[in-house]
């Protein structure tokens, strides 16, 4: 006997969805996003998955993601710096093949000092394409 509570009103909702590449856009903090899976693209309720790029010689503005965690895998580029902490006091180097985890609410800045664009596969537990970013301009001058 089927469990009626597990059956959606629309059986189509339980099928796999394919997302064919999307246009890129510049996020509020300055990185370039290409959304794959999101609330807008497939009706996701808990997950965003896409590609995040940081062009050569660029950096993000100081910011935090108040309500969600972010996980990244660096897939291309040379090296970036990720500055994090309440006063951006910690600097780590990230290279292709490294995974990066940013907890919810942690201030951070990404800096690409190389001559190659950096690219990441990113996932977060906020399904919105336009995530909840809190800019922190009071921290921008800390990172050289």
Automatic annotation (TrEMBL):
Domain Cupin type-2: 51-121
A Pfam family per the record: Cupin_2
Protein name: Cupin type-2 domain-containing protein
Organism the protein comes from: Rhizobium mesoamericanum STM3625
